[in-house]
Amino acid sequence: MSPLPNYRPQQMSLGPLETEILNIVWDLGCATVKQVHELILADPDRELAYTSVTTVLRRLTQKGWLVCDESERAFVWRPLISRREDKILRAHKQLNQFLEVGNPDVVAAFADSLDSASIEQIEAIAEKLKAVRKAREEEK
């Protein structure tokens, strides 16, 4: 079972351009402004200033998504969390928002509407939870 990442960005919400640039950095592993700018401009229908890319990379750094290595001549940005960790954090947030409804009837109605593949997934999750809880009890 994938645990929740220890590190979480300070701000999870991202705009469309922030998301696009973060995806580019994820694809490259690490990137300079020039690399990101060139990839965006590879689409002949796109226009985006070099300074706008710099601004967005800095904003992603401030939000806690990226870190900038300023030791080289060209600054290099790299992600602080992976795509997978992002998906885990977003799923966790959505699940908590769903459970905040707090009405057992709503949760039961949702569970009742699931297809058989989803039910199998939930049963697998329940089994993993049992195993995790059992392992915690044995550690005590």
Describe this structure in words.
It is a single chain. With 140 residues, this protein is mainly alpha-helical. It is 61% helix and 6% strand. It has a two-stranded antiparallel sheet with strand order 1-2. Strand 1 and strand 2 form a beta hairpin. Helix 2 crosses helix 3. The longest helix has 24 residues. The chain is elongated. The mean pLDDT is 89.
Short key terms for the protein model shown above:
two-stranded antiparallel sheet, mainly alpha, single chain, 6 helices
Q: Give average pLDDT, whole number.
A: 89
| Total DSSP E strands | 2
Helix content: 55-70%
Summarize the biggest pleated sheet.
Answer: 2 strands, antiparallel
Molecular shape: elongated
| Assembly type | single chain
Q: What portion of residues belong to β-strands?
A: 5-15%
Low-confidence stretches: none
- Sequence of strands across the biggest β-sheet: 1-2
The radius of gyration computed from the alpha-carbon positions, rounded to a whole number of angstroms, is: 20 Å
- How far apart are the termini? 20 Å
Look at the helices and sheets and give the structural class: mainly alpha
SSE sequence, one letter per element: HHHEEHHH
Number of distinct helices? 6
Secondary-structure topology with pairs:
Layout: H1 16-28, H2 33-41, H3 50-62, E1 66-69, E2 76-79, H4 83-99, H5 104-112, H6 116-139
Antiparallel strand pairs: 1-2
Please provide a brief summary of the model:
The protein is mainly alpha-helical. Helix content is 61%, strand content 6%. The protein is elongated.
